[in-house]
Structures are given as C-alpha cells and as structure tokens.
C-alpha cells in the first residue's frame, strides 16, 4: 500500500558514503601501487627497494583516501562539497 523508498538527504546517506569511500580507497590503492611499481622499476635495482616503493605508493593512496573519507563523514555538509567522496555520492544520487 504505497510503500516506497524513503528519501534520505545526501549528507545523511551513510550507505552511499561508505560505497564511495570503498570505491575511492580501492582505486587510489591500486593506482598509487602501480605508480610505485613503475617508479621502482625505473629508479631502483634491488628488489627490496622496489617493494619499498610499491609499499610507499600504496601508503600514499590509502592515506589520501582516508583523508577524503574522514572529511566526508566528520565534516559539516558545507565542507564535504569539495571532497571527491561527496561528489561521487551526489552523482550516484542524481542517477
């Protein structure tokens, strides 16, 4: 009887924020790890330093994703508008 989805404001939609954060973290982890692997192949000879550059790149990716996700969850809605997570959430809500 008229049961439909309840409309949740975008700044309070936690599921969409988690989905966007997981997506962002995965992409940044993979891309920065690949960048670290490429830099390791280009600049280093030792396998240990090559693995270290991959780990450094992965750490950069996870750290930057953590920063954006913490802004999306902790900051007031006016500050989350610049975050890439909130942009992803608003784009998925438009569809």
Mean of pLDDT: 81
Structural class of the secondary structure composition? mainly alpha
DSSP helix count?
A: 4
User: Which percent bin holds the helix content?
Assistant: over 70%
Which term fits the overall shape? elongated
Low-confidence stretches: none
| N-to-C SSE string, H for helix and E for strand | HHHH
Number of strands: 0
Percentage of residues in DSSP E strands: under 5%
Calculate the terminal CA-CA distance, rounded to whole Å. 26 Å
Largest sheet: none
Radius of gyration: 18 Å
Task: Give a brief description.
Its main location: mitochondrion. This protein has helices at 14-43, 47-74, 77-80, 84-94.
Summarize the structure in words.
- The chain has 95 residues and is an all-alpha fold.
- The protein has a domain at 18-74.
- The chain has four helices and no strands.
- It has helices at residues 14-43, 47-74, 77-80, 84-94.
- Helix 1 runs antiparallel to helix 2 (47-74) and helix 1 packs across helix 4.
- The longest helix is centred in the first third of the chain and has 30 residues, at 14-43.
- The protein is elongated, with a radius of gyration of 18 Å.
- The chain starts with 13 loop residues before the first helix and ends with a helix.
- The relative contact order is 0.18.
Task: Give the SSE layout.
Blueprint: H1 14-43, H2 47-74, H3 77-80, H4 84-94
Descriptive keywords:
95 residues; mainly alpha; 4 helices; 0% strand; MICOS complex subunit MIC10; mitochondrion inner membrane; mitochondrion; membrane; Mic10
């Amino acid at each position: 009887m008229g049961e439909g989805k309840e409309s949740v404001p975008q700044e309070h939609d936690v599921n969409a924020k988690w989905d966007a954060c997981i997506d962002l973290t995965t992409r940044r982890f993979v891309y920065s790890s690949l960048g670290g692997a490429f830099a390791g192949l280009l600049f280093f000879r030792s396998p240990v330093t090559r693995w270290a550059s991959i780990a450094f790149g992965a750490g950069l990716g996870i750290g930057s994703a953590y920063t954006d996700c913490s802004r999306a969850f902790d900051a007031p809605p006016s500050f989350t508008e610049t975050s890439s997570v909130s942009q992803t959430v608003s784009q998925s809500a438009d569809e």
